[in-house]
Amino acid sequence: MHILVSGVRHRTAPIEVREKFALLEGEVSAALKVLRACAGIEECAILTTCNRTEIYAVVRDTELGLQSVQQFYRIFKGLDIVPYRQYTFNLLHEDAVSHLFRVASGLDSLIIGEGQIMGQVKETLALAQREKTVGLLLDKLFKAALSVGKRVRTETGLSNKDVSVSLAAFHFAKQQDAQLMDRRIALIGGGKMAEIMMSLFKQGMTPEQQANVVVLNRSQARLDELCNRYGYRGYTWDQLDTVLEHAEVLFVATGAPHVVLGKADFEGRGPKLVIDIAVPRNVDARVAELGEIQLFNTDDLAGVNGFSGEAQRQIKQQAQSILEEECIAFQQWRMSLSVVPTLTRLREKVESIRQAELAANPSLGKQYELIDVVSKNLIRKILHDPTVRLKSSRNLAEIYQQASVLSHLFDIDLSPDVDNAPAESAPLWDNTASA
Fold first, then answer.
1. Which structural domain, as residue segments, surrounds residue 297?
2. What are the catalytic residues?
3. Residue 127 falls inside a structural domain
4. Please, what are the averages of pLDDT over each run of 10 residues along the chain (435 residues)?
5. Same domain, 257 and 373
6. Which residues of 28-50 are buried (b: 16+ CB within 10 A; e: fewer)?
7. Which of 240, 271, 301 delimits the end of a domain?
């Protein structure tokens, strides 16, 4: 069984390509069912954020698995991904594992240390569990990634800073307009990113400045909730013209899977700074053709973060040591699976001998319970070292060989298929760097 990851992310694809692959939150459940039904896909999970759409899968045949990923996009998105191959990435085996560990740690984010990704990885696993598309390998992989992410963020100091795409957009806007906090600002949308933005403005503004901030949302219920929480004035979608007429700065993140603001919406409205942090984009790129409009999207935020170059270097160096250690531990667990059947049968055989001996001595009487406990503990201690040694080797060929010897010496019927053991004895995990 092999682990693969295939997809697009900000490092490989610009936003106009990423939005073609993007899946909305409500689409993922159906997407998982379609993907799991594709040939050769044994397990699957889909991680989708504003900066990436990544398919994780367990397959027996990697070539067939990658073909099935293409088939999935054709079926579910009506998308032929062949013309976009230069923008996609495919990672297998240890590289796929290392990549998810980096993602969960915030090291592969648009803004290093971005904190939302941990929650997104957790949600990815939870949804795949609900849809029953993950099994032993992906369940363990995602749980390990969450553990690694927490460890990296804690030990490198990443957790000490609140970093997000919304925060980057906030700082980017202040770079573009030094008087940002005194402008008439409109927040269009009501999802997580928009709400973080609302919180940032509330923290950094005086009451007079906050009076110039408005929120626009399609849902009256959601609008009332946000306005009551943050104290901003609210507008519904039928009041869009009023908002666009007066706003000097717009932050747009509606969660809609398409453009909601076009060139005509801005014509004759005066100069504006517009930052579209939605993927797919909510603002038509042609709006930038209007001379008075400054339009930016998530790709423009790449250089914005709260860490200096030297701080980033130190963080990455510390994180790399953790990643290498955790990748080896995961591979160790994975290789140990090959000897589980042998160890299980060994314990079963020894236990059957123990029980047979107890049954053959009915005269034990009151000593039976004591001898039962002592014999169980004795067997557990005797089998402890062979179990640990079999599972601790970093060489798969050695594991197969030792398991084969063990099954021969104890006459165990079920043994690993030694004919499939690697011919060389070099460690299988000697590259933990993600592409």
1. 165-301
2. 50
3. yes
4. 95 93 91 96 95 96 96 96 95 95 91 85 97 96 96 83 80 91 92 85 88 91 90 92 94 88 93 92 94 92 69 82 91 75 76 82 80 85 75 65 71 51 33 37
5. no
6. beebbebbbebebbbbbbbbbbb
7. 301
